[in-house]
């Protein structure tokens, strides 16, 4: 299309987005008042050729949209043994206009506007995670399409927001944790057993639901679970990480419950099941989040602040306050010393007040109290 201006007109590409709508993009100036330079100023015929290349590559394929980038990213995640939900999640928050927009036409401003709009719906840390998922999909699309030359759009527009490390690391007292577990069992035995495992081990839900019968090492005094690693941290070896295990001690009381649920079942079956007997799947939160909200409300807490991850946070802080070396705490929770220090240092100070007070230098007995006045 040609758009007339007071100065040079503009050549505008108008193309279908494949979703019943279309997108437009100005891509060059017309040669109304100056000669063509083959780049920013084009003749009519040069503009035709440029528009065709923009809308279709040399092989005649349409430009990759955000929707297409997410689809390709989901396929890539599955191939690498990673969680495909990382590609599905952004779709829930993207508008149809953005989903249908070609990646090569994205600008930092529109992605930043979208990112900032999320802050009214979710915590800053959650916004950053969602933006990283979308950014990974866009970067994968760029790597496979040389028409996409605007990496700055997502590097700037989806840049991480500051202060996200102050996540909702709600720390519960031991009594509140017991109430949480008890209320979960009242909601349903299977959910209660999952919550019990999370409270005792401090594992992430995505780890616990991947436990197999064979991962339960029964022992009358020292029962253990071989907890699957989370495969967090990116990289191309996620599939390998997901098959690695580490040892986590559990209580004899929890072992007794797991012994019952594991009885007469094959070693490769899921240890923890839903009430209908099916596994929890890769995204257990989708299945239990409403139940957990009710549980949190039942024990007098706010679901907007307290999530099932409070069990993990509380477990970590409990161990630190019991003087378990930080390296062991990190190892038992499949994280790093750096992350423990970054996320939990302030909670140690807040919850360790009595311990610190016992170590304060208090005033000694007054020296003058032992002096006897002499008669004058």
UniProtKB/TrEMBL annotation:
InterPro entries, A to Z: DNA_brk_join_enz, Integrase-like_cat_sf, Integrase_catalytic
Limits of the Tyr recombinase domain: 167-363
GO biological process annotation, one example: DNA integration
Lineage top rank: taxon: Bacteria
GO molecular function: DNA binding
Keywords: DNA recombination
Name of this protein: Tyr recombinase domain-containing protein
The species this protein was found in: Bradyrhizobium diazoefficiens
